[in-house]
Amino acid sequence: MAITLTEAEQQAFAFLMQDLEIFPDCQQWFAILSSRFIKDWYVVEIGVVGLPDKWIVQVYDSGECDPNYTFSSPLFVEDTVALPQQIADLLTLERRTGGLR
Predict the structure, then answer these.
(1) Which of 60, 56, 58, 59 is nearest to 70 (CA)?
(2) Interval 39-94: pLDDT, tens
(3) Pairing with 86, which of 8, 17, 39, 54 sits 20 to 30 Å away (CA)?
(4) Full-prediction pTM beyond 0.90?
(5) For residue 12, with 0-12 CB atoms within 10 Å meaning exposed, 13-18 middle and 19 or more buried, which class applies?
(6) Options 3.10.450, 2.60.40, 1.20.120, 3.30.450; which CATH number does 5-72 get?
(7) What angle do CA 43, 53, 37 make, to 5 degrees?
C-alpha cells in the first residue's frame, strides 16, 4: 500500500529520532526541511533548526525507512554552543565522521 508524503515525513522523522536516540525533549530542535517523491520512494530531508546540517532518509512506498540514510553538512567547525548537549555532541560526531558510524 502506498503512503502519502505527509506519512513518509512522519515515518522518516520517527525513524531518525529513534535511530539517533534523540531524547523527546530535544526532538523539537529538528524539522522536516524538504521532501519529494522519486519513483518508488520518498526522499525526506531532516535538519536541526537554524543549521545547514541535514539527514537524508529514503522512505519506500511501503512506509519502511532505508536504514542507510545520509548525513550532509557544509560545516566542519563546532558552532554548537547554544544547542542542548545531546544535539551538540551528535552534530560534532556526524561532522567529524561525515555521517559514518
Answers:
(1) 56
(2) 889 999 999 988 888 999 999 989 999 999 998 877 655 566 677 888 888 888 88
(3) 8
(4) no
(5) buried
(6) 3.10.450
(7) 10
